[in-house]
Amino acid sequence: MTIDELRGRVADFLATHDPRSTDRLEFLRARYDAGLAWVAFPEGHGGLGVPQALQAEVDRLFVEAGAPDNNPSANGIGLGMAAPTILAFGTDAQKARFLKPLWTGEEIWCQLFSEPGAGSDLAGVATRAVRDGDAWVVNGQKVWTSGAHNAKYAILVARTDPDQPKHSGLTYFLCDMTDPGIEVRPLRQITGEAEFNEVFLTDVRIPDSHRLGEEGQGWKVANATLNNERVSIGKTALRESGMIGVVARTWRAQPERRTPELHDRLLRLWVDAEAARITGQRLRQKLAQGQPGPEGSAMKLAFATIAQQLSGLELELLGEDGLRYSDWTMVRPESVDFTGRDAGYRYLRAKGNSIEGGTSEILRNIIAERVLGLPAEPRLDKDVPWKELQK
Amino acid sequence: MTIDELRGRVADFLATHDPRSTDRLEFLRARYDAGLAWVAFPEGHGGLGVPQALQAEVDRLFVEAGAPDNNPSANGIGLGMAAPTILAFGTDAQKARFLKPLWTGEEIWCQLFSEPGAGSDLAGVATRAVRDGDAWVVNGQKVWTSGAHNAKYAILVARTDPDQPKHSGLTYFLCDMTDPGIEVRPLRQITGEAEFNEVFLTDVRIPDSHRLGEEGQGWKVANATLNNERVSIGKTALRESGMIGVVARTWRAQPERRTPELHDRLLRLWVDAEAARITGQRLRQKLAQGQPGPEGSAMKLAFATIAQQLSGLELELLGEDGLRYSDWTMVRPESVDFTGRDAGYRYLRAKGNSIEGGTSEILRNIIAERVLGLPAEPRLDKDVPWKELQK
Amino acid sequence: MSDLNLLPTDVEDDLRATVRDLLVDHCELSAVAAVYDGDRSLVERLWKALSVDLGLAGLLVPEEHGGAGASTREAAVVLDELGRHVAPVPFLTSAVVATTALLDSDHALLGRLATGDCTVAMTVPLSIELDAPGRELASVTADDGGRLTGRVTSVAGALEADVLLVPTVDADRLALYAVPVEQAGVEPVVSLDMTRQLADITLDGIAAELVLADAEAAVRRALEVGAALLASEQAGVAGRCLETTVAYLKERRQFGRVVGGFQALKHRLADLYAGVESARSVAVSAAAALAADEDGSVATAVAQAYCSDLAVHAAEEAVQLHGGIGMTWEHPAHLYLKRAKADQIAFGTAGAHRARLAGLVDLPPVRA
Amino acid sequence: MSDLNLLPTDVEDDLRATVRDLLVDHCELSAVAAVYDGDRSLVERLWKALSVDLGLAGLLVPEEHGGAGASTREAAVVLDELGRHVAPVPFLTSAVVATTALLDSDHALLGRLATGDCTVAMTVPLSIELDAPGRELASVTADDGGRLTGRVTSVAGALEADVLLVPTVDADRLALYAVPVEQAGVEPVVSLDMTRQLADITLDGIAAELVLADAEAAVRRALEVGAALLASEQAGVAGRCLETTVAYLKERRQFGRVVGGFQALKHRLADLYAGVESARSVAVSAAAALAADEDGSVATAVAQAYCSDLAVHAAEEAVQLHGGIGMTWEHPAHLYLKRAKADQIAFGTAGAHRARLAGLVDLPPVRA
Question: In the UniProt record, which is one GO cellular component term (chains A, B) (predicted)?
Fold first, then answer.
């Protein structure tokens, strides 16, 4: 399909679904059915099987027409991680059941992967799923679950066979978050807020039809999910977007707090941020020509380092004002803005940038091993039954 | 012995050996025989078995009297490494034969430890020593030998049993550097100079009486030697001694080259150098109360980092002058001054500070494992016969 | 410069053990965290135990005023331990800064400070730089009748104080007045570091007692001593961060191995160890230099320039190397991070101390 | 700002392959090292192969003057490869800086440059900063008869040049004269980087030809293009240092393991990889920005500020991670270290470029 044909499809759709007079949800469902939701997905599942590169133009045309969007920021895990994994590993029935309400935002998703004992080492999950007839009974504790209190469904990794080595005994499920065995507790962070949750699963029942991929294939499926997380390198960024923009504005606004050493540190970070921006641009141009690789890890690494250094510098620049904080009250924010609230919040929140979505240490391993081809770490846990490993 | 008694001994000695009229060598030999050479050594071997802390006072009295010294800088390896090892592991005959001419400087020593394939991993030495009657026949190649062309003797580690695991098959020897099988070739460094040598050993014969310690005990003996190297944390340093002094003087002399960023970098390094100086002082006060530990590794680490950063900064500060070098001609310097020659030389020479005498990487391992008690690196080479290891 | 003794004396070792025992028993980190949610019950209880029961309030007060007549060396030991426990007590502000400011005054307050009967705070912003001009040191004015008017923001120790020691400016002389805290407007500030919570002070024509008419030297000396000893607190914060991180990484397993065995982390911890040892050394050196009255300004500048950033680095490494758990409220790492970051700004940033050092050691900046 | 294409075109890929093939064959690192001992036989041979045989001398010369009419993008590709091989040729000085300075002049020299018939060096110190005042750009004076008198130190490319392009200052106008090199005093300098050996130039009342009467813009443009493209050389140096270090550490065994498997080194190499990728990106971006005439000054400042230090860091890491062998003369690591360090100073240090950037992007320094 050429881009002009695609434009024609959008025009046809808009001609029959006037955004101004059509109900929002009805409009979104119809857009999905027309294959104009995520155009790279196959026909019948919200797409037309055309190259991903064409998505931007379709989105642009809908925005131009004043169409409602599916509020993607409210369902980041669903759209960015659950959907591509369901598409890749799901049965036809699963795709038919889950993808449409996911895309329209009717069903919000969250992720039940990390556990207190399985952070960087995701394959170490201890949450157990035991088969019981046509269903699985799940018990365990998950952590770092954002949006769990709003989610209808979760992608879940659980251990189904403790006699297997750790990577082989895992299975991937689609878990109903309204199950009575699910308890969601807010997990307060160093900012004072509870952006994430702990999730306790007690005899949660999941029908076997909600298993994604084969039994024991959970590690492979989970990796597909995580790759989607890590290669996400964002959209074209403008110069001085993100943390550098915030701190540069503080600099411009506070001439009396400037010192020569802060000036040079700020300039260094400005250069680093600009270099990261340009490097991201170059990587995106490369990706447009081929497959995403592990190179994106370097971008995330740089992003975290720069954000942390900048937000630390900002407090020094502010001096006395940097000693003050907005509010320690424990709240559950609906959305997270790394550069929002006040400078103290930015400083504390940025500490998470090098932990969430792959710690900087794990990213360095990935670069060293997958990009540079250096030897993997010596491991002693790969061939031993999981139950025999020292925890 | 009290310090006053010791002072009396010195006075008595000086009364009978007038430094102005006594031949230099005769004076030094007599001082050795009087136990006033290295006073902590036992009687009969140049000392009186008194605490090391008293050495400084004895040296001061001799300097005050205008006595000749044993030119210690010309025999650093002998005095700092060979002598304590011979004292600890030598037979009476070895101590009697070697310590006196070593201390007087009549016999200069060098060190034949490192090899091209055994740098940080000293236990990997491949130089072979094969027993032949009452002697050993040695073949192999050593490297990073300073002073080999001036040395009469060397401390040498060689492999005597390749069927043993790598640490168990080594033996330690005292090697005559005038043996016809020894070839010394200058090893040119990035400065242009050849401060070190490569030493090729071809059928070098060493009498078994020059073996130090038991056969197969070479690793233990060598470690005693290396600990003497690594805990050496120098004498009380004055503020702005070493590289920081040089660069601070350059700063004061070149007002027109100053920039705000260089200023702050210089101040950071001034603080680091001062912190290292004070830390060294504190460590020396601690050592005066007890045994040297691995903590000195942190001092060497800091010294290297600071010298490298300072010398790099100096070239930037000099700008155009930093683009010029004194002389690339290959020479064999008699002594080395890290802060000598020109700024370009200082920059290049300082690169060696984090390699020689234990790389900074090895020092970090030592701190992590021996000071902080973190687990050692996984090793696969400890229990396998040396000859079966992949080289 | 002679070689100052940088090792603890027996007296200092005993003092450390005593303070540590008390803190281990009475300064649980969960209670410290509670101050962020407004429960400051620990503060008064702990400060009473330290100041009165142990008598630390009078550590620096001369014996003739009933104090212990100790030196900055002993106070540094206390601050090191307080830092290790992020203890939310006004030792630095009252027993060090305010006490030092009063030393030349012979004022009765010294006796009350010594017994722990009275806690004092000098009203300067915590972020004040040592070479701040007089008008920044003193933003309050006194009229002829000794009535004070003005506002000082971000004052540490004021919430715990009974008496405020107020620097005032008048023509170009700096004076020091004492005001009972009840008479001042004291407005608590939501602070980055709630374990040293700040307050904004408003003085609205309040009658005050003149303590020192020509106080600039005393005030500057108090700030310098405060800055020098803050370095020991920072060294304590850093040391504790290193210890708890090493301990955690010896337990935590991932990928079938103890995480502390991964070499990249080992090397970072080795570097951090080296930094912490240096921090301790320069902190002790500053305290010793002030005690011996030898080159104290350089030692203070070095200690602050080094320890301010090192403590932040140590706390940041602690958060990072604890992984996700270090980002949670329930783990105490954040208490150290916030203290370290606020301490970095207290009495001026490391950059400010370096700039001051430049003048002290003849490393002049770019010629104008 | 539109999104510049940061990926190589097919033409650029072909150019890179051609240059690389030639360098692999004709620029052995042992021959490069020989220039330090005075054997410069490689220089002329290699430059002839590149400039005449491959026609690179005329890469930036417009087609109407017989050149290739290529842009800074293609020149950046060449410099990246030259950096990878620390090639001791005057491409940057003649084919980039001198050529760019002449672009507006329509002078016959352009034609001679295009054929490789003539190599030109502009007489400024290699360390010249882009915003240096006119009197530093031009220390030579011209009399009314066009006779030049003065001295310029530390000039790169002069030893290889046939013609010197001399900026002169006269009242407050900057002019550009051409002088055959034989008529100038050219004194070789023992240089930190002998692969770009400097010379001191003395002009002693030499008759010269006026090339551009009002040359300040041309000279500044030439320096900016030189600085921007130097970033590609630096990225090449850094990239090669990373590659050879990774390759060495995959082979080298110590403690029974491949050294490149030790995690502390893996993490350093990962960080270095990220740095090298960024260096490449900003270097390409600067070349592309100049080619498109879009915001070239900011892109140049960013590229120099980033690549100058990164290349030094990469070369220093290469020396360190090669262990002892990297400290030896026989290993080529030192050639890269010396080039990287000299490049850091060339056209101003990273700090100078940051200071320049501050003015370009509205991040003003401390108010006077």
Answer: plasma membrane
